[in-house]
Amino acid sequence: RVQEEFLELLELLVSCARTYVASLAAMEEFHLSLSQCVVLRYHWIDPFVRSLKQRLAPFHRFFCVADQVKVYTNQNKTRTFIGLEVSAGHFQLLELVSEVDRVLEEFDLPTFYKDPSFHISLAWCVGDMSDRLEGQCLQELQDIVDGFEDSAFLLRVQWEQIHCKSGNKYFSFPLR
């Protein structure tokens, strides 16, 4: 869930970045990944969800701050993203990833990246446009974030639950 002010910040960022890459599109939904996208066989879904629920049960709610603008590309360099990297709360996210990875290993699925850059994607475009977005553009975007009224409050995310999506099914795991 996002606040109106966050959407105002997003519009400023995308508008600025479009002067460097006109084809950028703003994200409509926001998330922070704790795993790679994997394919679950239908008969694995229930045991996978049960295992996730068990592994995530001991975790408590926590805050993280995502306020560092960064440019990302997917593994095959077919998409470029502008995201907000987590600057506080990294340790708690690593602990969550460790438990999610254990569940993935139970099903012989790929685990998360070794040195993850936890982030929330804000905008994307087709192709590898990182050379256009890094440098001057990235600095301008960070200046917008740093100077935006209430950005410290807006970019502080409370983790109350973890979501898992499999096909058209959504599962939620509340944190204590």
In CATH, the architecture is: Alpha-Beta Complex
Low-confidence region ranges: none
Helix content: 25-40%
Strands ordered across the widest β-sheet: 1-4-3-2-5
Global structural class: alpha+beta
- Note the quaternary state here: single chain
Global outline: globular
Q: Span from first to last CA?
A: 19 Å
How many structural domains?
Answer: 1
- Using the coordinates shown, work out and report the CATH topology: Cyclic Phosphodiesterase, Chain: A
Number of helices: 6
- State the order of secondary-structure elements, H for helix, E for strand: HEHEEHEHHHEEE
Largest sheet: 5 strands, antiparallel
Rg, rounded, reads: 17 Å
Q: What is the number of strand segments?
A: 7
Approximately what portion of the residues adopt beta-strand conformation?
25-35%
Spell out the CATH superfamily. Answer: Cyclic phosphodiesterase
Overall pLDDT metric = 96
What does this protein structure show overall?
The protein has 176 residues and is α+β, with helices and mostly antiparallel strands. It contains six helices and seven strands. The protein has helices spanning 4-17, 45-56, 90-106, 130-133, 136-147, 151-154, and strands spanning 25-26, 62-73, 79-88, 119-126, 156-159, 161-166, 169-174. The strands form two sheets. It has a five-stranded antiparallel sheet, sandwiched between helices. A two-stranded antiparallel ribbon has the order 6-7. It is globular, with a radius of gyration of 17 Å. The mean pLDDT is 96.
